[in-house]
């Protein structure tokens, strides 16, 4: 409630009110502009995309980019498709798979941890474990890149090589999850931000409700499932959505830890495509001429930034859909907590 | 001239009327208590006066000035909230000084007046503390000091005592009266507790269902309630209400039903005669039920009711006895009623039937349908419960 | 039903704040508390906030484990038995209904988690609804958020009764209700307790409520039980000054006085003690306690009471004068039609006066239970 409810008809307040509205509109516009530009560019022709100054809307709209992407998705044998390491749907499925496991493992683990911290732990133990988890939020992702990378090589050892069991020739058992989807999934199964979100909500549930259930004879898990869970649906919606968009848009980590081209998620593949498209370097004359020919083919097929924009739209579509599907709960949950 | 005038005030939330055509005036230096059950609209009325909610219809005037559309900060009111609404991050001094500072009071004045206000409520030694280091009673006195330090044209209290332990309330009540007398400005005090209202107010307004039911002194409300609601709401334990049929027998007027047969006092017989053959509600205050031997009047069969003792509560002055009517008891659950005695009722009377004499000159009569008092209802457009 | 014993229970809370240097220095919430509750008896536990009364309740329920001492139900040590297995019913201040379930579901939850059949649950719920009296049936089909405070509390009580608890524990069950509703509800609860004769611990901060609800009353302060007894015992023979001032409203006035040669000296005033009291009070400084109704107004040798403020309470047919005598706050009960005066003279009625040691707050001489007949 930014403004007092009484006295809105006074001129000073009325001006202030419209100023606030103006700022809000500006903010919304700035926020939406990249999306608008992405959408518009996807309908531009190859030359217009590169035109300077950029045009605000397609002068001669073309569906070339979209048509090309359809062929990419189907995995046809066009020149552009050859720049990719497989049909686009394969990468899309990779993303789906990774995100699925992140949600299925991550949400229960995070929420149960937060519940335990909020309602079951007491005293110093509770506050230190809370600080510990929150501490991981303060750690920049780049800092954990190397240790995490080492972990994926010899899980669960964050060492360049597996230590031997003392007194024997054997090594400790370890798993090499590097270059598998698990290497992408496991590090983000516990989401500190969602932990904070859940903990904040669980703290608002009166202890007496849980104590009443305890006196009634419910087991701890039953209390969580029957009493706490139904109350927390909006918070779960928010947590699922942030986990979803986080996992879906992951970029740097999969790029580091995945090697095989067919395992890449869509977000990384789009970037790789972009990279190949813009920096197709050549080391000798044959290659150069072959690549020049290839680029010519691609351009003639209409592939340019417009196609990449279409892929970008495809990539962000699921996040949009997820938002629309559970927007009712999301809004309630965001109102509940005040997101980010 | 009235200091504060409230004229046909209406507040609607989603087309539900929380405050329904409320009107009253307050003189300079007067304290008005608004009392009613929770959800009766008393707090909303207070918030409307403070400018925290916009008015749906009607007028609020401070003197001659209509303040409906004046912002709270420009109305110059001081308000004490139920949860004290103390700023947790500021020291006691800064809490008290906040109202002055936000009005650009010179520093020197702030430095002088804050300790002075704190001294009135015995918290001058706590000025450097943070609120979390204070007890409930101390926090409350910070809230009072915050009101004290200002020169507001209206002081509003929203159930300021309800979060205090019982023993602290007496002192806090005196503190509030001190503040009121010192400032001599109009004050409105909201509470749900009628005994608190009785203890504080020169004038008490009883509210129910968004409307003011009756305004008057504590004695007015207790002895001359205009309707069933006021009669029931004022007084602990509550008045006993019996729904009875009026029968006229020569020059005697009787009220019968539920196994009761009571002769109405001659002073009320005239009013009741009009209800011959119809239902009325007979209200008897617990203190007007007497052990026959000790009654201050002659108890006859026509002024006696019989009850079975369910519970006896010891009080410092005697005892409060909870009984159930032992009438015909045909089918339905017997009606409960309460009597207060100046003596301790021995425990051996538990579950026994005892006769009690009714002081018929002190009973109240109400229309069974509208709830309006036959004796004091007058032309008041009273609302049934 | 059960007989409850609490045996020298100590409970100390770990501080919940992130940084708290004083954590180790705070006193325990329960400081070696012992009490016994007979089968079917209701004991009220009363005290100011933070005195440990809720902690005591939680220890008895098993929601907190004590650091030392034992809790016994019917002579069996249950100190470390989980609350799930104790068979207690608990009613909370905020009702603690399960917000996602209707009234019916709230009552039936116990049977679901104990793997009873649905028919049994339904039958028990129906029986309880009958016993709860008129109008309870329609509360079962509604979600807690749509119920008023009083209705929620009725559901909460029914949720306990539905499973025949050994022991009923109530934590300020009616303090969230408004005054009038509180009055009705407490009568209702008291009647239910009498009807079912369930052993009950009733926690409240309101001494009047404690007196009403309890067969006996335990007065607590700073983690200790100061006195456990009937209202008359607490009122006429308080164990110390704290209990004396805690019970009764308006509270008892406490004057610091000096006794010399059978006379009470307050400032420049001297009161001669009557013969039956004099031997009991030694010379020296003592504290004199006088309840509002224990003053004689306008007697010849009275102390001057400047009336600061006066409350006329028509509902009690009394008016109270507030002022001070010898620096101590004094309340005096007078008749309702007592005229407005700025000064009155008041003398203690010695047969109703209390004497306490000046330093230890222990009683020296008490009036004892008044003989009315």
Number of domains of chain B: 2
Helix content of chain B: 10-25%
- Annotation field: number of helices of chain B: 10
Q: What is the CATH T-level topology of the largest domain in chain B?
A: Rossmann fold
Distance between the termini of chain B: 34 Å
Mean pLDDT of chain A: 80
Task: Compute the number of strand runs of chain A.
Answer: 0
Number of domains of chain A: 1
CATH class of chain A: Mainly Alpha
What does it look like?
The complex is a heterotrimer of chains A (340), B (385) and C (373). With 340 residues, chain A is mainly α. Chain A has one domain: MetI-like (MetI-like fold), CATH 1.10.3720.10. Chain A has helices at residues 11-41, 46-50, 64-74, 79-83, 88-120, 123-138, 145-153, 181-185, 192-204, 207-216, 220-231, 233-248, 252-257, 266-278, 285-300, 305-325, 327-337. Chain A is flat. The longest helix of chain B has 18 residues, at 166-183. Chain B has two domains: 4-225, P-loop containing nucleotide triphosphate hydrolases (Rossmann fold, 3-Layer(aba) Sandwich), CATH 3.40.50; 233-367, no CATH class. Chain B is elongated. Chain B is an alpha+beta fold. Chain C is an alpha+beta fold. Chain C has two domains: 4-237, P-loop containing nucleotide triphosphate hydrolases (Rossmann fold, 3-Layer(aba) Sandwich), CATH 3.40.50; 248-365, OB fold (Dihydrolipoamide Acetyltransferase, E2P) (Beta Barrel). Chain C contains eight helices and 21 strands. In chain C, the strands form four sheets. A six-stranded mixed beta sheet of chain C has the order 6-7-8-3-9-10, with helices on both faces. Chain C has a six-stranded antiparallel beta sheet with strand order 13-12-11-14-20-21. In chain C, strands 15-19-16-17-18 form a five-stranded antiparallel beta sheet, with no helix packed on it. Mean pLDDT of chain C is 87; it is low at 16-24. The interface between B and C is large, with 41 and 46 residues.
């Amino acid at each position: 409630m930014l403004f007092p409810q009484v006295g809105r008809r006074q001129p000073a307040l009325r001006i202030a009110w419209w100023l606030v509205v103006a700022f809000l509109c500006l903010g919304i516009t700035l926020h939406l502009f990249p999306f608008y530009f992405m959408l518009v560019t996807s309908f531009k022709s190859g030359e217009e995309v590169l035109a300077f100054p950029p045009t605000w809307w397609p002068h001669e709209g073309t569906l070339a980019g979209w048509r090309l992407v359809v062929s990419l998705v189907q995995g046809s044998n066009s020149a552009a498709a050859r720049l990719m390491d497989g049909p686009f749907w394969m990468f899309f499925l990779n993303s789906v798979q990774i995100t699925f496991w992140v949600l299925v493992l991550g949400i229960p683990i995070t929420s149960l941890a937060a519940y335990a911290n909020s309602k079951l732990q007491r005293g110093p133990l509770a506050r230190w474990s809370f600080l510990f988890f929150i501490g991981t939020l303060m750690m920049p992702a780049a800092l954990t890149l190397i240790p995490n990378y080492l972990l994926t090589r010899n899980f669960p050892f964050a060492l360049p090589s597996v230590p031997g069991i003392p007194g024997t020739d054997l090594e400790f058992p370890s798993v090499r999850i590097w270059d598998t989807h698990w290497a992408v999934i496991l590090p983000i199964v516990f989401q500190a931000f969602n932990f904070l979100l859940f903990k904040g909500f669980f703290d608002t549930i009166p202890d007496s409700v849980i104590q009443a259930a305890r006196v009634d004879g419910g087991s701890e898990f039953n209390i969580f499932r029957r009493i706490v869970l139904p109350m927390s649906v909006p918070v779960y919606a928010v947590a699922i959505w942030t986990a979803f968009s986080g996992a879906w848009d992951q970029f740097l980590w999969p790029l580091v830890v995945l090697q095989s081209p067919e395992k890449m998620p869509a977000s990384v593949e789009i970037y790789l495509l972009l990279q190949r498209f813009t920096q197709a370097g050549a080391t000798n004359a044959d290659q150069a001429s072959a690549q020049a020919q290839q680029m010519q083919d691609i351009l003639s097929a209409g592939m340019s930034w417009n196609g990449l924009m279409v892929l970008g739209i495809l990539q962000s579509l699921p996040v949009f859909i997820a938002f629309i599907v559970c927007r009712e709960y999301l809004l309630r949950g965001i109102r509940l907590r005040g997101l980010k | 001239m009235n200091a504060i005038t409230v004229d046909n005030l209406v507040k609607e939330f989603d087309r539900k009327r929380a405050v329904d055509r409320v009107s009253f005036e307050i003189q300079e230096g007067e304290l008005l208590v608004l009392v009613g059950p929770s959800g009766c609209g008393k707090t909303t009325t207070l918030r409307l006066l403070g400018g925290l909610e916009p008015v749906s219809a009607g007028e609020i005037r401070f003197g001659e000035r209509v303040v409906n559309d004046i912002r709270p900060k420009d109305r110059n009111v001081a308000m004490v909230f139920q949860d004290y609404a103390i700023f947790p991050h500021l020291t006691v001094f800064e809490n008290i000084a906040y109202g002055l500072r936000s009005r650009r009071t010179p520093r020197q004045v702030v430095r002088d007046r804050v300790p002075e206000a704190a001294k009135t409520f015995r918290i001058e030694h706590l000025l450097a503390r943070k609120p979390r280091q204070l007890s409930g009673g101390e926090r409350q006195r910070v809230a009072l000091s915050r009101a004290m330090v200002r020169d507001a044209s209206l002081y509003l209290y929203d159930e300021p005592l309800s979060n205090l332990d019982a023993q602290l309330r007496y002192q806090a009540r005196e503190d509030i009266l001190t503040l009121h007398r010192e400032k001599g400005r109009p004050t409105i005090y909201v509470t749900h507790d009628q005994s608190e209202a009785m203890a504080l107010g020169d004038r008490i307004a009883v509210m129910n269902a968004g409307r003011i039911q009756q305004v008057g002194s504590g004695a007015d409300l207790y002895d001359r309630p205009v309707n069933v609601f006021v009669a029931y709401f004022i007084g602990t334990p509550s008045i006993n209400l019996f729904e009875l049929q009026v029968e006229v027998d020569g020059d005697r007027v009787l009220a019968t039903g539920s196994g009761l047969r009571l002769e109405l006092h001659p002073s009320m017989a005239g009013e009741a005669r009009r209800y011959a053959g119809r239902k009325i509600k007979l209200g008897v205050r617990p203190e007007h039920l007497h052990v026959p031997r000790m009654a201050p009047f002659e108890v006859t069969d026509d002024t006696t009711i019989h009850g079975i003792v369910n519970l006896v509560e010891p009080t410092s002055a005697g005892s409060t006895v909870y009984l159930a009517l032992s009438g015909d008891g045909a089918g339905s659950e017997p009606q409960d009623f309460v009597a207060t005695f100046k003596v301790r009722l021995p425990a051996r009377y538990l579950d026994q039937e005892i006769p009690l004499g009714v002081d018929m000159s002190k009973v109240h009569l109400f229309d069974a349908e509208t709830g309006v008092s036959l004796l004091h209802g007058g032309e008041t457009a009273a609302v049934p419960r | 039903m059960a007989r409850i014993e609490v045996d020298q229970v100590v409970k100390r809370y770990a501080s919940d704040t992130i940084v708290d240097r004083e954590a180790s220095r705070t006193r325990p919430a329960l400081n070696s508390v012992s009490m016994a509750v007979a089968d079917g008896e209701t004991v009220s536990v009363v005290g100011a906030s933070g005195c440990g009364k809720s902690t005591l309740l939680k220890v008895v329920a098993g929601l907190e484990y004590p650091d030392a001492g034992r809790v016994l139900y019917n002579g069996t040590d249950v100190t470390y038995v989980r609350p799930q297995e104790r068979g207690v019913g608990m009613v909370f201040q905020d009702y603690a209904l399960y917000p996602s379930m209707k009234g019916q579901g709230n009552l039936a939850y116990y049977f679901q988690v104990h793997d009873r059949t649905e028919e049994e649950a339904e039958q028990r719920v129906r029986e309880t609804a009958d016993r709860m009296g008129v109008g309870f049936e329609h509360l079962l089909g509604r979600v807690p958020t749509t119920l008023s405070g009083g209705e929620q509390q009725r559901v909460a009580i029914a949720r306990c009764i539905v499973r025949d608890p050994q022991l009923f524990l109530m934590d300020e069950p009616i303090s969230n209700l408004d005054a009038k509703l509180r009055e009705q509800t407490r009568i209702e609860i008291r009647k239910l307790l009498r009807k079912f004769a369930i052993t009950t611990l009733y926690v409240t901060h309101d001494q009047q409520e404690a007196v009403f609800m309890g067969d006996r009353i335990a007065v607590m302060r700073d983690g200790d039980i100061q006195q456990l007894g009937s209202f008359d015992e607490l009122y006429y023979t308080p164990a110390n000054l704290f209990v004396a001032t805690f019970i009764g409203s308006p509270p008892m006035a406490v004057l610091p006085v000096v006794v010399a040669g059978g006379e009470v000296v307050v400032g420049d005033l001297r009161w001669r003690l009557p013969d039956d009291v004099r031997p009991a009070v030694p010379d020296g400084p003592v504290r004199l306690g006088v309840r509002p109704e224990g003053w004689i107004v306008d007697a010849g040798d009275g102390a001057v009471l400047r009336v600061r403020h006066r409350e006329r309470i028509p509902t009690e047919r009394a008016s109270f004068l507030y002022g001070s005598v010898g620096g101590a706050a004094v309340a005096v009960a007078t008749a309702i039609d007592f005229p407005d005066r700025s000064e009155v003279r008041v003398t203690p009625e010695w047969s109703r006066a209390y004497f306490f040691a000046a330093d230890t707050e222990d009683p020296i001489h008490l009036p004892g239970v008044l003989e009315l007949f």
